[in-house]
């Protein structure tokens, strides 16, 4: 599935990598930005319940696989193509359809819609109208489109999104396994080269490269739908 690339935005926006652009990115992907990400575990709660993730090492391995071969990689591809496209609605529809489980679809659509609502102060009018026409929108699609419309450099937006996504799931693991904060930070530190590798790998991948080899993680997300006791929505 190949999408046309979008020209750079014509309105007055910060130049890439200026302090203004960096400040926007830090605000949007801060844990304090109200996307509701703390409520989702991306199937991790089910994996902990079944004994698949029980320690800092297994959490690190789980996250590494998602970033290299699963939804982390796919989100980075979606973000990059949303950054470049003239047909955001088509990519948004593709992103919603490609979620492998009901709760994972709800997770990305709810967070994306919350992101666009919270980011309205930064939205150019044209993009605001596009978001309104699309309706519920996947989180990486919303982030990529807004980053492009406000002059934030694509690679910076990608690595910042992956970092925020990873940090949220590591935080979920800290609560679920449970782990101490120091162990959680050690996992986050160990994943830094994985984040950089995923960002670099996805730079030139086509939209057709979206796929997943993380079948166990996706089954865990499906099983979570009927899990008896739950702290998280996915």
Helix and strand composition category:
mainly alpha
| Strand count | 0
Largest sheet: none
Overall 3D form: globular
Strand content bin: under 5%
Encode the helix/strand succession as letters.
Answer: HHHHHHHHHHHH
- How many helices? The count is 12
Runs in which pLDDT lies below 50 for 5 or more consecutive residues are 1-14
Mean pLDDT comes to 92
Helix content: 55-70%
Distance between the amino and carboxyl termini: 28 Å
- Report the C-alpha radius of gyration, rounded: 17 Å
Region (Disordered): 1-20
Subcellular location: Cytoplasm
Organism: Acidiphilium acidophilum (Thiobacillus acidophilus)
Subunit structure: UreD, UreF and UreG form a complex that acts as a GTP-hydrolysis-dependent molecular chaperone, activating the urease apoprotein by helping to assemble the nickel containing metallocenter of UreC. The UreE protein probably delivers the nickel.
